[in-house]
Amino acid sequence: MRLVQFTADGASRVGARRNGSVVDLEAAGDAVGTPLPNSMVDLLSDPRWREKVEEVVAEVGDGPAVHDAADVELDAPVTGPEKIVCVGLNYVEHAEESDEDTPDSPVLFSKFPSAITGPETEIRWDTELTNEVDFEAELAAVVGKTARRIDRDEAKEHVAGYTVANDVSARDLQFADDQWVRGKTLDTFCPLGPDLVTEDELGDPHDLDIYTDVNGERLQDSNTQHMVFDTYDLVAFCSQAFTLKPGDLILTGTPPGVGAFREPPIYLEDGDEVTVGVEGIGDLTNTCANP
């Protein structure tokens, strides 16, 4: 199953992909008598969301609730989550290029929901605040079931699916502070998309190619099998400390090749096009702008 949030006729909607089209789940649910909400967080909060979506998509047929995929404008697949949990140094080679030891337990920090933006939007920053803006391709796990103090073998059932994230980072701010939040969570510094893909369609989330292209040049190229702590480890670990709720995001860390640790460093500039992608989910492309 591939879920999206999209804009059609000026309104934001939640949809499911079907054979080159996007089914508006709220409108389709009303048509077949299975009401569905109109936000991804609200949808995932329904314990029977998978069953209901499958039923609605199968029964709706064609009509005004079904849009040609080319006619919709994709938004971030999740907006307004309660939490965005990020994981640092979760690929061995990224820890090495950062001149850091591989951590013995997950290193957590956060972004704010106000940082979220979608595909084909601008990553924006003020050059009076930062001049060292970096890219980080990441696999993002989307929580689909409330999780509190669960074991690793329970974690899979608490994940709704996966999307692509760019953990955009203002390195000068990040390294100037004793913690990372300010440099990580400027507005637009959390692009997400294009789809939320459930694991039954995606396959093993721990064996997916992950990459970044800047202006067409491949700068990150790895595989999620190289994560130090996999998504199930991370869901279980986080749940020991705080409650994970439907729609919460866990950004699972970036592989090597980020701009800050290259010789010379490569930072994003006004007009750059940056694409981060994960095999089986898709490409997330944004342009860069200094307002």
What does this structure look like?
By secondary structure, this protein is of the alpha+beta class. It folds into 2 domains: 2-74, SH3 type barrels; 84-289, Fumarylacetoacetate hydrolase, domain 2. The chain contains 9 helices and 19 strands. The strands form 3 sheets. Strands 1, 2, 3, 4, 5, 6, 7, 8, 11, 12, 14 and 17 form a 12-stranded mixed sheet that branches. A 5-stranded mixed sheet has the order 9-19-18-15-16, with no helix packed on it. Helix 1 (25-32) crosses helix 3 (49-59). The longest helix has 11 residues, at 49-59. The chain is globular, with a radius of gyration of 19 Å. It starts with a strand and ends with a strand. The relative contact order is 0.19. The model has no long low-confidence stretch (mean pLDDT 97).
Would you tell me the structural class of the helices and strands?
alpha+beta
Low-confidence runs: none
CATH hierarchy: architecture of the largest domain: Alpha-Beta Complex
Q: Give the beta-strand count.
A: 19
State the order of secondary-structure elements, H for helix, E for strand.
EEEHHHEEEHEEEEEHEEHHEHEEHEEE
Q: Total helix count?
A: 9
Strand content: 25-35%
Short description:
It contains nine helices and 19 strands.
Which secondary structure elements does this structure contain, and how are they paired or packed?
Elements: E1 2-8, E2 11-18, E3 21-24, H1 25-32, H2 40-44, H3 49-59, E4 66-68, E5 73-74, E6 84-88, H4 92-97, E7 107-111, E8 116-117, E9 122-124, E10 133-134, E11 137-143, H5 152-155, E12 159-166, E13 169-170, H6 171-176, H7 181-184, E14 190-197, H8 199-202, E15 209-214, E16 217-223, H9 231-241, E17 249-251, E18 273-278, E19 282-289
Parallel strand pairs: 6-17, 8-14, 9-19
Antiparallel strand pairs: 1-2, 1-5, 1-14, 2-3, 3-4, 6-7, 10-13, 11-12, 11-17, 12-14, 15-16, 15-18, 18-19
